[in-house]
Amino acid sequence: MSTTIPGIGSLIPQPAISSLEILAEPVAAAVSTLVASRPEFGDQILAVSIDPQVADTEAMTEAFGMDLALSSNCILVSGKRQGVERVAACVVRATTRADVNHVIKKRLEVRKASFWPTERAVEASGMEYGGITPIGIPSNWRLFIDSRCTRGWSCIGSGLRGSKLFVTGEVLSALPGAEIVDGLAQ
């Protein structure tokens, strides 16, 4: 692999399209679809197996000597309007915090927005806690991506705790329904 990812530490990812077995099922299906429609993404969606014990951002950063600024987290947030739940997957750099009470609430057009409980997030996404990713989310969810994640590479979940994806900002921007939001995180 000739791709250089600044701040990756000791990890050596390979093209995800040739490692689909280490991804959660909805993620593998979405990666296949993305690469089929945009072949150039084959070199911009990379995967690597990791020990599930170090899947959390801080632990992974320490274990592999990775730059924390390379990681991006996907959080699930919801709110109700007129009795209808509105759900958003929100992607923010690990060095920031999603602005749930202002920006996300306003974009969802709800009075109150909250993080989803772990059990609900896992069940609805088909992904493991600690591995939830914007790639392969249900099509009826909104997808908000902080504009800082559209530049350079991001280390994101793979749907499983035992692997991670490395994707370019171009890939994140091209995800179905992606809404790029300035100031999504503080």
Automatic annotation (TrEMBL):
One of its GO terms (molecular function) is aminoacyl-tRNA deacylase activity. It comes from the Bacteria. InterPro entries: YbaK/aa-tRNA-synt-asso_dom_sf, YbaK/aa-tRNA-synth-assoc-dom. Residues 52-171 form the YbaK/aminoacyl-tRNA synthetase-associated domain. This is YbaK/EbsC family protein. It comes from Nanchangia anserum.
